[in-house]
Amino acid sequence: MKNKAYILFFFFWIFSISHAQIAVAKTNVNGSSTLLDFEDSASNTRAIILPAVNSAPTGLTSNNNGTFIFDKSDLKLKMFENGVWKNLSDAGNAAGATSNSGSELGQGITIGAPFSNAKGVLVLESSDKAMILPKISNPHINVKSPHVGTMCYDTVSKSLAVFDGLKWNYWK
User: Fold this and answer.
1) What is the Rg, in whole angstroms, of the alpha carbon atoms belonging to the chain?
2) What is the pLDDT of residues 137-171, one digit of tens each?
3) Which residues pair with 84 in a beta bridge?
4) Residue 22 lies in a domain
5) pLDDT tens-digit profile of 38-88?
6) Residue-by-residue DSSP string for 61-107
7) Residue 10 lies in a domain
8) Which residue range(s) make up the domain with 36?
9) Which residues contact 13 (CB under 8 A, 6 or more apart)?
């Protein structure tokens, strides 16, 4: 397991210094304006899992706009925008949320730029490229055991879908 983490770190590090486009679980990214792209087959049921933090970080700046977390202090999924944490869900359930018990080293991994002032485990930094979320058809039906903080794009409702530990929340 530890070796997989090193391999994954090395993989992201190589691509972060080369400013390349990254496709995860597929061979090519969709479009030239994509920095990070995930599997988008009709049968996909894998999504992103957001970090579960004890409480929403303070002292963030506009460099951190677009940061997503699951806040265990009030059991809500949140996004940071213009100096405020915005709720993306009602109170959920943190029973399945696990925290990283290891010590954090450095700023994390930055993809798309040589460095970033934003704080995060994975920072996507680009002035002309974006991330495409994993696409899942009806995640409330097809993702059988979602983890707290699971996030994807629902291809049926055409919306952002986030799981708060109790239910899926949809945002258009």
Assistant:
1) 16
2) 999 999 998 989 999 999 999 999 999 999 999 99
3) 81
4) yes
5) 877 888 888 888 888 888 888 888 778 888 888 999 999 999 988 999 999
6) -GGGTTEEEEETTTTEEEEEETTEEEE-SS----TT-----SPP-SS
7) yes
8) 2-164
9) 109
